[in-house]
Amino acid sequence: xxxxxxxxxxxxxxxxxxxxxxxxxxxxxxxxxxxxxxxxxxxxxxxxxxxxxxxxxxxxxxxxxxxxxxxxxxxxxxxxxxxxxxxxxxxxxxxxxxxxxxxxxxxxxxxxxxxxxxxxxxxxxxxxxxxxxxxxxxxxxxxxxxxxxxxxxxxxxxxxxxxxxxxxxxxxxxxxxxxxxxxxxxxxxxxxxxxxxxxxxxxxxxxxxxxxxxxxxxxxxxxxxxxxxxxxxxxxxxxxxxxxxxxxxxxxxxxxxxxxxxxx
Length: 264
Prior knowledge:
By secondary structure, the chain is an alpha/beta fold. The protein is built from 9 helices and 9 strands. β5 and β6 form a beta hairpin. The longest helix has 26 residues, at 109-134. The protein is globular. Keywords: Oxidoreductase. This is NAD(P)-dependent dehydrogenase (Short-subunit alcohol dehydrogenase family).
């Protein structure tokens, strides 16, 4: 897909981190970008900075998501690109010992379901809503391409650590979406891929640096090469290539400096 002003994109979570870098990179190519986020102040600021539109969207709410796509399409036209980065999740071990009573307790099913909704179900929601809109577009080339969906998993999909039963399994679900989506959408010329980023220098990780420089240094040292956390711009670079290169389809791609996470 040629990335220019003839193409529109929706980027979820675009107020910060990997999504912000992706929105910025797409806008730099001339793509008309719509940012979805619940952070209205941050999203508006990024949209103003890169010449995008902002739409307050809760990815866990069907009506909010539908309304966001309608607003974005009214502003920029039907998107051919979706980059879905937004998520919400909870932590906790499956079985843990209560500090007050000393008894074993189980992570609540509601906590697990909250994370599944905030990561796995939301990824399907945003991908399917985008695909429904893309299906009505004319192909942009002789191969019949109509659009491209990029989902964001995590290396935790394969290397989930202790306390990541919710996050890791939900991210594994996002990895598992790539191929079924690609096959379901193949006759429509819509591609789907999932990126599994490792540890990136996003705001939550930069906060770790401020709190504890030693922990930050340890995280950097844990990456085989390069011995540093990933840069959001490196994630965005892969997003651009996945959209440009039509032969990326149904792929799950680790972007992690060769890190493999230990149990803890």
